[in-house]
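Input structure tokens:
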């Protein structure tokens, strides 16, 4: 395991971050009141989630600890400290306790792996997300969005509400499925959807319960969880094995990953490594985008003046043509809309790290094996950083305005060496879907939709989003 020289780190901090020298102990950190001696703040966290973090930001400030059984937990909401953890001293941090639960489901893929193994997998995977590869995936995004548009045609001008959440879920599911393993799409979509949904529920339950019994204990929960994991392995390994036996080439991510070789050793990924990586890409790459698109349509409905600016740009730039990797770059306001939507409703609303060796943050000594939690949603709505943070203002992200902001006042894809490898893929996907759908239709989210948050692993709306569809004249 990586070792960090604490004294050397302390000397470095004294020069670069003088306010970060340890003058207080971990126990001196302020903390919220606890309602239960044994469970600490755990029950409040399970019940309130985002509201809990928003409240503590207002009442306590930018750094505090929370009491959770069996764990040390610190919460940070200051962009400077977040940058310190994710970038400046990132070598002293691994993924937090939540990723232990995610790892059980996703395996040792890019999201959950650590150290030299992660570096190797990043080297092998990175070429699949280079710009030239994204250009190849672009046409697939267009084709799948065209299918979604054909489906929405059935509801257009009928005054009948469509379950927009469901349509967007199918769209993003089909995009990531066909991008990962093109020839398998018709055979795998429904099965993977069911297994991923069940797996996500088990992950959330594990994160919520720090007193989880070991996997080998035959509780009803563990037995059901084991069944889902076995089914997931069987499905993905069968896809990989079939692909290995085929001789034809496919322009999909699975083929790219299977052909990738380590520059230093010449090794390729094993079936287990392939399973972990494609499952990680699948899970991380479809639900988050679907959620972001749903919230974007809601925000546009609430802000018709912004919608008009966007649709005028789409009309004038594309001139009725299908988006291409070239002309979509001219949709500058569309990019601002995407960024502002993810500021308002970041799909990954919270992230965490865990100390390898003790550290110092804002004068407090942070012990070894402490979980450092960074609630992205809270930072994105910080009134000291963002004017009118709960308003939808895409212009915040024009070139002039955004360069005045701290880089880590907005970080929907994380940051530092562990920046999400699929960030450009996700942004491109959102741009294609929004441009094509808004080019054809006016989407009006039902006025009785309640934008209540359901913050599990991702920031879902608690209720499905229904909308009416009108053809553009």
């Amino acid at each position: 395991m990586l070792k960090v020289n604490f004294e050397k780190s302390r000397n470095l901090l004294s020069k670069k971050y003088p306010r970060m020298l340890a003058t207080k102990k971990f126990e001196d950190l302020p903390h919220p009141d606890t309602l239960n001696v044994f469970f600490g703040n755990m029950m409040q966290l399970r019940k309130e989630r985002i509201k809990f973090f928003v409240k503590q930001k207002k009442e306590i400030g930018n750094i505090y600890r929370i009491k959770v059984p069996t764990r040390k937990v610190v919460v940070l909401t200051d962009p400077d400290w977040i940058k310190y953890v994710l970038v400046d001293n990132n070598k002293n941090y691994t993924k937090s306790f939540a990723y232990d639960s995610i790892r059980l489901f996703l395996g040792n893929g890019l999201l959950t792996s650590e150290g030299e193994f992660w570096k190797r997998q990043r080297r092998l995977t990175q070429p699949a997300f280079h710009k030239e590869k994204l250009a190849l995936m672009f046409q697939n995004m267009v084709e799948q969005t065209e299918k979604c548009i054909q489906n929405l045609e059935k509801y257009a001008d009928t005054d009948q509400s469509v379950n927009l959440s469901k349509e967007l879920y199918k769209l993003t599911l089909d995009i990531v499925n066909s991008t990962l393993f093109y020839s398998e799409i018709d055979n795998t979509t429904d099965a993977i959807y069911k297994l991923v949904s069940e797996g996500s529920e088990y992950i959330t339950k594990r994160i919520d319960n720090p007193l989880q019994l070991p996997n080998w204990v035959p509780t009803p929960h563990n037995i059901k969880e084991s069944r889902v994991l076995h089914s997931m392995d069987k499905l993905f390994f069968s896809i990989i094995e079939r692909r290995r036996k085929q001789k034809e080439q496919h322009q999909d991510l699975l083929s790219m990953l299977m052909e990738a070789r380590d520059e230093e050793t010449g090794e390729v990924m094993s079936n287990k490594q392939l399973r972990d990586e494609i499952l990680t890409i699948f899970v991380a790459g479809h639900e988050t985008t679907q959620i972001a698109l749903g919230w974007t349509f809601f925000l546009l409905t609430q802000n018709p003046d912004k919608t008009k600016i966007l649709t005028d740009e789409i009309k004038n730039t594309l001139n009725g043509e299908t988006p291409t990797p070239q002309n979509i770059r001219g949709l500058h306001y569309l990019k601002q809309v995407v960024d502002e939507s993810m500021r308002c409703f970041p799909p990954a609303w919270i992230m965490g790290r865990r100390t390898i060796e003790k550290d110092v943050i804002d004068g407090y000594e942070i012990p070894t094996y402490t979980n450092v939690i960074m609630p992205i949603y809270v930072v994105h709505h910080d009134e000291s950083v963002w004017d009118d943070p709960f308003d939808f203002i895409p212009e915040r992200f024009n070139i002039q305005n955004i360069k005045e902001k701290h880089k880590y006042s907005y970080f929907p894809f994380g940051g530092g060496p562990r920046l999400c490898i699929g960030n450009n893929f996700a942004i491109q996907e959102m741009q294609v879907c929004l441009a094509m759908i808004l080019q054809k239709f006016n989407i009006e989210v039902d006025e009785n939709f309640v934008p209540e948050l359901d913050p599990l692993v991702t920031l879902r709306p608690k209720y499905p989003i229904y909308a009416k569809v009108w053809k553009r004249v």
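The radius of gyration is 23 Å. The mean pLDDT is 86.
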